[in-house]
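Tutorial handout. Part one gives the primary structure; part two gives the three-dimensional structure as tokens.
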Amino acid sequence: MDKILLMGNPNVGKSVIFSRLTGVKVIASNYPGTTVEFTEGKLNIDNKKVNVIDVPGTYTLEPTSKAEEVATKMLDEAIEKKDSIILNVIDSTNLERNLNLTLQLLEKNIPMIIVLNFWDEAKHTGVGINIDQLQKELNVPIVTTCGITGEGIKELVKEIPKAKISKIKFDQSDRWKFIGEIVENSQILTHRHHTFLETLGDASIHPITGFPIAILVLYLAFTIIRFVGESLIGYVFEPLFSNLWAPLMMKLSALLGSGGFVHDILIGKLIGGEIVFTESLGILTTGLFVPIAMVLPYIISFYFVLSFLEDSGYLPRLGIMVDNFMHKVGIHGLAIIPMLLGIGCNVPGALSTRILETRREKFIAATLMAIAVPCMAQIAMVFGLVGEYGAKALFMVFGTLLVVWIILGFILNKTVKGESPEIFMEIPPYRLPYFKGLLEKILMRVVWFIKEAVPFVLLGVLVVNILYSLGIIQFVGEVTAPVVTGLLGLPKTAVGALIIGFLRKDVAVGMLVPLGLTMKQMVIASVVLTMYFPCIATFAVLIKELGIKDMIKSALIMIIATLLVGGLLNLIL
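Part two.
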């Protein structure tokens, strides 16, 4: 045995079991489709390192989505090489539905162990399973677990060497009848009343109560994000930079002679003899201040709220509530998940379009997200800079993007060929988020942001300084003046921000500060920077997800829409 494949339906807790077995931290959430790519780790079995693979969730071995294709392909390779066993993770609270995949796996004649996860929840919900009887019915070892608390994991590791090929025989055409017999022989349901969370779950998708709940949840979410973000900036990060970092940088500036090429690269320009973190444009000043003091606080607060909504199980319910409207823009309600993830960072947002079934839906969702859904880093910068002109300016920026999202969605729905099937997803039960797991998930995402974003910000600031010193930005400004100045009404110097926007959009917005733009120009520049092209990291993921041909189409839509909207704003405002 060289490999262990963790397989099961979506949202049965495979990723948590995987993390428990290997120690590899993964993002797990309470909705189907969290795992869209496989993840690999190591487990020590009898002094031998074995690869453990968290395979994307699938309901069947007849794939209907990209994630299910990945799962089926990995299983076929394992069968061909005869070097693997399967850990089939099952949601104990929904035995009947999960056994459909289990019987398909048993037919593949590959060694297997069944993991009955959510064992604690099954007891709480009145579901009793006779393990001995079920083991007899399926003829493979069975272990019960609770992935969140780690209960049963030690027993599971002990049982892994006992994985075996099942000898049961049944007619595939009567599979569901056979499943019914297994469930009847192995499962006992006891009467109980609805819990508070179940009542709340029903109210969340009821047409009368669901929309007020959705509005309340979104209002609270954005209020918390703003309150936590602003508090972290005002009470923690700005004082740290002003009281500790600025004096150090001033001493370094004096050592470098308060000017010159190296000084301008590291410290940037001194304004009135002082460092202004938002305007100096040095690697050690603006390059660190923007991602850490202006963006990171909102990243922390956003991922806190998003992780809570993910783990509680509310997001699929929000998808149900917005499904009818989303169909009018060519995608179904589950596409709300890529949009919300895109607000955190467009990269995971683009990756999560895999949960959509058709190429048409992926194209529309990815294009709408790349054009009209700014990432939290950019939102934070827009709030910090455009917010100085008041709520009216912020409304113009985000109101324009919302209108663009809706109108462009209607147009794409009418013009892009293909199908947008009805929403087909399992609604998970509400679960109280596991606090330690919630904090770990936030930490993983924050570390990911720091590792991915800060180097690009520093690179962006370095590139800006070099391009300015070589006169390249000034030259490009002259060449593109008819568009930038004539059509969009922006100064030629804004070209530098548009160029850097391809690297990091938050840095690009920050570059607008020293330009002394009017409110109108700041609004246009913020909208154009959001729409005209995704950042380089998102661009790379979109090429992978959409393919070259569709990415070119999407890019053309972005450029044309940006010029139209930017030109209109220049005329209207």
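Part three, for discussion. The longest strand covers residues 84-91. DSSP finds 25 helices and eight strands in the chain.
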